[in-house]
């Protein structure tokens, strides 16, 4: 295994070299969005200063170069997640982010339910009495598109509950997934408890009844090696900005044969073979069918560089480094009056830890630690049902990335240790 200098990795993130409120910045909010290494920042700016042009059209040299860079980035992302990339077999669709990818699916399934997309799309059609299964731990960007899809089609939304410590309870998958289930949409890693879902039994139960599996891979992409073919999920969505890439861009994985059968969800330029005034248009094959309009080209190119950055460090090293950070982060649990919402053992989890400080509102906790230079997230983290499970509306959340150090965690633990005395809780 390659030896890494984590200091050298951290030094690649210019934003971290600053002070806030006179204290060195300790960034522990990577689950919201990760900071960007210089190589990603440079890739975006170099694209604009050297080859900026529209892709897939135009006979000029810059258009040719930007098309190559765009498609190479798609290939890099496909390899990063264990998907196909060969021309005509692409399995990666560019989106505006995970939320956009999940909405794309809900919209496309909704169109299929209206009979759009021809006979191939009937496999995605939902009818009264059909069931869509999510989990109690879902981010609203999974829950709400699926809830809306259910409302539009007359399907029923069901959910796999979480265990007491906030893991998706896969032992319940077989009872929640029934012969009526058409879609199962779950997260790989939760953005609240940091727990890693054992995806295999869910995929097995879903496929047994012919349901399609949608994986929210947002919080997994920066922390775990992804292999879509090995996971055997049907679709997966993630955002570049959580994996050290740019904002405004994400990717939707789909098994090739499913992408080919899926109806278009947004309509416009660059996704159509033939368009007429007096008869229906003929749409292009995937991925173009799902990429109407000018794409975030520079951001896609820089996302490829972000994937390369992660691959270069290697997930074995990343997991080891972050495991050590998580071990120390879990010490939060031993501070009097602090309760971790989620597993307190350091297995099958990443370094995202939600916690509650008894008697102190999360916004007060957030401001108090911010005054010490420590950035954490407070609120419901767009996952209200799992907060309800823990009996709270909001929480504090610290989350690590490749650039964090043990002293970052110590700074947080120190700051949190002072909260209750300060607020006389
Ligand atoms: N799912 C999970 C688990 C997330 O953490 C997030 C981002 N908070 C999303 C989906 C949505 O990602 P985005 O806001 O980048 O579309």
UniProtKB/TrEMBL annotation:
One term of GO molecular function: cysteine desulfurase activity
Reactions mediated catalytically: (sulfur carrier)-H + L-cysteine = (sulfur carrier)-SH + L-alanine
Domain Aminotransferase class V, by residue range, is 26-412
Keyword NAD found: no
| UniProt cross-references to CDD domains, sorted A to Z | SufS_like
Keywords of the record, alphabetical order, are: Pyridoxal phosphate, Transferase
Q: What class of enzyme is it?
A: transferase
What's an example Gene Ontology biological process for this entry? Answer: cysteine metabolic process
Q: Which cofactor does it need?
A: pyridoxal 5'-phosphate
EC number(s): the record gives 2.8.1.7
Give the UniProt family note. Belongs to the class-V pyridoxal-phosphate-dependent aminotransferase family. Csd subfamily.
Function summary? Catalyzes the removal of elemental sulfur and selenium atoms from L-cysteine, L-cystine, L-selenocysteine, and L-selenocystine to produce L-alanine.
According to UniProt, the name of this protein is Cysteine desulfurase
Organism in which the protein naturally occurs: Galliscardovia ingluviei
């Amino acid at each position: 295994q390659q030896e890494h200098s984590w200091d050298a990795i951290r030094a690649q993130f210019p934003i971290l070299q600053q002070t806030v409120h006179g204290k060195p910045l300790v960034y522990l909010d990577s689950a919201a969005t990760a900071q960007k290494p210089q190589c990603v920042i440079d890739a975006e700016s170099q694209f604009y200063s050297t080859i900026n042009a529209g892709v897939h059209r135009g006979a000029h040299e810059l258009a040719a170069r930007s098309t190559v860079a765009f498609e190479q980035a798609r290939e890099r992302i496909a390899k990063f997640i264990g998907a196909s990339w060969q021309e005509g077999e692409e399995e990666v669709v560019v989106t505006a982010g995970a939320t956009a990818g999940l909405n794309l699916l809900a919209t496309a399934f909704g169109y299929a339910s209206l009979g759009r997309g021809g006979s191939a799309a009937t496999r995605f059609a939902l009818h009264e009495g059909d069931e869509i299964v999510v989990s109690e731990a879902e981010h609203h960007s999974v829950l709400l598109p699926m809830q809306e899809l259910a409302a539009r089609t007359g399907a029923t939304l069901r959910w796999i509950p979480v265990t007491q410590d906030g893991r998706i309870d896969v032992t319940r998958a077989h009872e929640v997934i029934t012969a009526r289930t058409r879609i199962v949409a779950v997260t790989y890693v939760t953005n609240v408890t940091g727990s890693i879902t054992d995806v295999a039994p869910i995929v097995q139960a879903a496929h047994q009844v012919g349901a399609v599996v949608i994986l929210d891979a947002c919080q997994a992409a920066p922390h775990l090696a992804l292999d879509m073919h090995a996971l055997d999920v049907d679709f997966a969505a993630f955002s570049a900005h959580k994996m050290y890439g740019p904002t405004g861009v994400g990717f939707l994985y789909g098994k090739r044969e499913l992408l080919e059968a899926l109806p278009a969800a947004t309509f416009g330029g660059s996704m159509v073979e033939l368009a007429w005034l007096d008869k229906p248009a003929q749409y292009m094959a995937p991925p173009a069918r799902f990429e109407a309009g000018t794409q975030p080209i520079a951001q896609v190119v820089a996302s490829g560089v972000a994937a390369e950055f992660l691959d270069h460090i290697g997930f074995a090293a990343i997991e080891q480094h972050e495991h050590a950070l998580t071990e120390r982060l879990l010490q939060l649990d031993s501070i009097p009056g602090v309760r971790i919402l989620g597993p307190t053992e350091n297995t099958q989890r990443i370094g995202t830890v939600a916690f509650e400080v008894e008697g102190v509102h999360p916004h007060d906790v957030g401001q108090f630690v911010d005054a010490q230079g420590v950035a954490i997230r407070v609120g419901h983290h767009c996952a209200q049902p799992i907060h309800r499970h823990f009996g709270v509306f909001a929480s504090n959340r610290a989350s690590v990335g490749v650039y964090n150090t043990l002293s970052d965690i110590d700074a947080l633990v120190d700051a949190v240790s002072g909260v209750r005395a300060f607020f006389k809780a």
